[in-house]
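Our consortium's second objective concerns turning raw sequence data into structural hypotheses that experimental partners can test. To show how far this objective has progressed, the report includes one record in full. It was chosen at random from the queue rather than selected for favorable results. The single chain below, 405 residues long, was entered without modification.
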Amino acid sequence: MAAACVFLFTYVAFSLGRVPGLRSDRLGAAVIGAALMVALHVLTLGQAQAAVDGSTLALLFGMMALSAALEVSGAFALTGWWLTQRAHRPLSLLIAVSLASGVLSAFLINDVVCIAFTPLVLAVAEALDYDAKPYLLALATASNIGSVATITGNPQNILIGSLSGIPYARFAGALAPVAIVSLAANIAIVAFVHRAALRAPATNRTAPRPRRLLRPLAWKAAVAFAGVLAAFMAGASPAIAALVGASAILLTRSVKPRRFYAHIDWSLLALFAGLFVVVAGAERAGLAESLFRLLRPLRPGTVGGLTLLTAVLSNVVSNVPAVMALKSMIPHLPRPESAWLTLAMSSTLAGNLTLPGSMATVIVVERARGRCNITFVDFLKVGLPSAIVSLAIGAAWLAWRFPAH
């Protein structure tokens, strides 16, 4: 009973974004929930420590450090600026923003891409005298879609990659086609919804060049990232490869390491650790089996059933907690590899259903506030059809790739 109460408390807080009646946020709920699991003797301190998956946290930290180096060096901003300089028509600019954010989010954590690109997209749109809204919506939705392609695209994929043991190349081979087709569909949807804004005449005006590139750091970060990606493809442990890459970045003379630390989401790492303990307590109390029996009528053993279940749960409690809640069920399904990939696909693409559904979207909206205000309805007009289409594409592809026997 104690475990059930703590689990319910934590997931209600995640659904609402805070502890009811208090100012404690999702991170606070995860930490409180983890502490209660130990204090109420659901888990011993040793069991709680063992529940925290160090490989997931190491991979997440390593990729954050590599992304931070690319942002601090100015490489992100310069790459985006270079692409947009070659797009003098509104539709061309929309395609350039979508492709840049989608491709980068496939290999680097999408939240970081949105942090770096939002001010750039605003500056480019303002310099060209275009309405920034369609480009910001394209940035948010495309970064979510692109991130589905690989294990390192977003936090929930990193978690799934660590838990499932699916090799990096195999994961990408299964889900990169979904990202490519869905990205094309998303561009078409944004262009259709904002067709009036995209009728603006072409311009020869240019956006201001970003601040000077820190070349040594940019080259070092690019080489480190290429090495890490090569190690992933070669079958090396993703956590070890990412940590080695992060270590190379932190060995620096030109930039103070605290500049990198400022771009690492420490609260996300702590949230993961807390959720690992909360879910472990729930599993130990037998709640995982109860959840599996409760959800059986939705047929989670099928690609379609698991897609629908994950999409709904991801928009109720957010995608990372949804994956945490479902992770114990996946190994017991008829085809675990297909189920893990379906979980990754649906928890990611469902982030485009509503504005709060993805942290990447929230980042874009909040960073643009005051210069271009995007409402819940503004996002819904683009995100809802994009999510429905991309989820259908993903479910159909995985059902074809992993046919039921």
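The partners drew two points from this record. The radius of gyration is 21 Å. The CA atoms of residues 393 and 402 lie 14 Å apart. Both points have been shared with the crystallography group to help prioritize constructs.
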